[in-house]
Specification:
- The chain has 403 residues and is of the alpha+beta class.
- Helices cover 28% and strands 24% of the residues.
- It is built from 11 helices and 19 strands.
- The strands form 4 sheets. Strands 3, 4, 5, 6, 7 and 8 form a 6-stranded antiparallel beta sheet that branches. Strands 10-11-12-15-16-19 form a 6-stranded mixed beta sheet, sandwiched between helices.
Length: 403
């Protein structure tokens, strides 16, 4: 199949402001609890926990009384303590940002989005590219899913919070950034010099293929994605689509409510889509909450290693419920949910903490595992360069043969 060039982009400024959060975070944005600033005082700890702080208080007093360089910066001591606490969890997704870092993380994008055009995961030890955007400078340079950023403009960024590494990647259009990455399980180091550009953010594209097959691609689960997707799906059906290919390749996720809404378009009423599992062992279950537009049409979903987070929720639900076959390669494997929780309203920075994991309707956890397609089909660089799409071809073949 020839590459499709139709692009429908978001035009709402709110979405532009959300790009850094949705596309850089790599975690599911869902039903947030509104947690204000946290001012811990010892009286708020359980009585049996208070003795645990005696060694900390002793160490604090020793450092403040005896450390050679006085006076000690007490704020740095507090921030270092919080950072050490988060690191001691042994969870690469939980971390601390000091106030300056937190301000940088939450600085909104003004005007148009400029950068190299790639979706990334900032929730681990490194800034990791999930996938380049279509026709972007990152794609043209050869950035691939799974590439880990280790240096920016020759500066070592190992150990720097990935959210801050991302800020170094972003920048004005027509300026260059040199990115050094690790590839192939860290066995290969590559360096790219990429010219930043104004990046249009794709949303939905659709068309009628052969034999009454409708093709619809979703690039993100954003605030308006349900409306745009449902309108496109309705138009396909009105134009005679009797079978559907739903392309979730390189869709890095976004808002979990959007994933639930869009999944509802293909499923019967009261179908289970998502299970959230909390640290205390309790679970929350989420079911379809919109009317189905295509509950019976044969359905194939295209996935690859850039299919992550909320995309995996949708694909996993369809696979578990027997509603669709997955075609492509194993998905990214992002099954944990994090929240940013400001400390003292953000004045003392913030902690990012893993609060829950999500499971498919059958109770599968996909963290670090991903979803295994029903039909594994590779898509090589040679295929891309030749304008071929064997994954899409396989989906068409499966639907053409469907009785």
């Amino acid at each position: 199949m020839e590459k499709r060039n139709t692009r429908i982009v978001f035009t709402i400024s709110l979405l532009l402001a959300l790009i850094l959060l949705v596309f850089s975070s790599g975690f599911i944005i869902g039903r947030f609890s509104n947690i204000g600033g946290v001012n811990f005082v010892f009286s708020r700890f359980d009585k049996e926990d208070r003795p645990l702080f005696n060694p900390y208080i002793q160490a604090w007093e020793i450092v403040n009384d005896r450390y050679i360089d006085q006076p000690v910066d007490k704020q740095n001591l507090v921030q270092g303590s919080i950072k050490g606490m988060m690191e001691s969890l042994g969870d690469p997704y939980s971390s601390y940002l000091d106030p300056e870092q937190f301000r940088d993380q939450n600085a909104p994008l003004e005007g148009e989005y400029t950068g190299i055009g790639a979706w990334v995961d900032t929730s681990g030890e490194f800034l990791v590219f999930i996938s380049p955007m279509p026709d972007s400078p990152a794609e043209e340079a050869g950035i691939e899913p799974g590439d880990k950023v280790i240096a920016i403009d020759g500066e070592d960024v190992a150990g720097l919070d990935p959210s801050l590494v991302l800020n170094k990647v972003l920048g004005p259009a027509d300026t260059d950034v040199t990115i050094t990455i690790l590839r192939n399980d860290d066995r290969e180091t590559l360096t790219f010099t990429i010219t930043r550009a104004v990046i249009p953010i794709p949303s939905v594209e659709s068309e009628i293929l052969e034999d009454g097959i409708g093709y619809i691609r979703l690039y993100t689960f954003g605030v308006n994605s349900y409306t745009e997707f449902s309108e496109s799906l309705t138009a396909l059906i009105d134009d005679g689509a009797e079978k559907i290919i739903f392309d979730l390749r390189n869709n890095t996720g976004g808002i979990v409510d959007s994933a639930i809404d869009i999944s509802s378009l293909f499923l019967p009423e009261d179908s289970l889509i998502l299970i959230e599992e909390w640290g205390d062992g309790t679970t929350d279950k989420y079911i379809t909450d919109k009317s189905a537009l295509a509950p019976d049409q044969p359905l194939v979903i295209l996935v690859n290693q850039g299919t992550a987070s909320a995309s995996e929720i949708t694909a996993g639900a369809m696979q578990d419920l027997g509603r669709a076959k997955l075609v492509g390669t194993t998905t990214f494997g992002k099954g944990l949910i994090q929240n940013w929780l400001p400390l003292s309203g953000g004045e003392d920075g913030a902690i990012r903490v893993t609060i829950a994991r999500w499971l498919t309707p059958d109770g599968r956890q996909i963290q670090d595992l991903g979803l295994e397609p029903d039909e594994i089909v590779d898509y090589t660089q040679e295929d891309f360069d030749g304008g071929m799409d064997p994954q899409l071809d396989k989906a068409v073949e499966m639907l053409r043969d469907f009785e």
